[in-house]
Design a protein that fits this description.
The chain is built from 6 helices and 8 strands, in the order ααββαββαββαββα. By secondary structure, the chain is an alpha+beta fold. It folds into 2 domains: 105 residues, Hypothetical protein ph0010, domain 1 (Glycoprotein, Type 4 Pilin, 2-Layer Sandwich); 71 residues, Hypothetical protein ph0010, domain 2 (Dna Ligase, domain 1). The strands form 2 sheets. Strands 2-1-3-8 form a 4-stranded antiparallel sheet. Strands 4-7-5-6 form a 4-stranded antiparallel sheet, covered by helices on one side. Strand 5 and strand 6 form a beta hairpin.
């Protein structure tokens, strides 16, 4: 299985990013308004890789069920700040769920998806696109202004068939599952995934 190498993080870097995410959620639950949106860890103590622009999604789960997921497709700020921002947003600004409460914290697990560069896909027909998708590897971005949506590679765990994956993505973008136009823009990307479950050996 081909994997893209786009960022070099050691175990200490990964633990640091998870700690930043956990801290952001905990501070928000404790209503520390002054510092909830700040990354209080010293940026001088971390590797340069974490201070480079990065795009990420932060996913929260409770009892293995989704509890929040927010991120960005564009790298516009240092990776550690991006993780901090989206951890808080996933906990308190995902409109699909009520804000995370302090009593839930012990049951919450955090996963990070760091996005690699997007690659344009050319497809005249839906079958052309399906033939190019790599289940379990590719995240996919659909852009048909004003519609846009993405599925992270981890979504393949629930939607294992390419046709099912694609139909659900179109619906997420607000389009009919059978909709097709040759001018839809498609992009795929890969992610580096980091989770508290993996780091703790659970």
């Amino acid at each position: 299985m081909v994997r893209m190498s786009f960022i070099d993080l050691n175990d200490r870097d990964k633990q640091y990013l998870l700690a930043i995410a956990r801290q952001a959620v905990e501070r928000g639950c404790l209503a520390d308004a002054e510092s909830a949106n700040e990354n209080t860890a010293s940026k001088h103590a971390v590797s340069p890789a974490l201070q480079q622009p990065g795009a990420s999604f932060v996913t929260l789960k409770k009892a293995r069920e989704l509890r929040g997921c927010i991120g960005t497709l564009t790298a516009h700020q240092p990776l550690l700040d991006d993780i901090n921002e989206h951890a808080r947003a996933s906990a308190f600004n995902d409109f699909r769920f009520p804000p995370v409460q302090a009593h839930e914290l012990p049951q919450i697990t955090i996963s990070l998806s760091i996005l690699g560069p997007a690659e344009n896909l050319e497809a005249d027909t839906e079958q052309d696109l399906l033939d190019q998708l790599r289940p379990g590897i590719d995240g996919l971005i659909l852009t048909w202004p004003p519609h846009q949506a993405t599925f992270l590679p981890v979504v393949w765990e629930q939607l294992t068939h390419p046709a099912e994956f694609l139909s659900a993505l179109k619906q997420k973008a607000g389009l009919a599952s059978h909709f097709w136009h040759p001018n839809i823009q498609w992009q795929r990307y890969q992610t580096l995934n980091i989770s508290e479950d993996e780091q703790s050996g659970r």
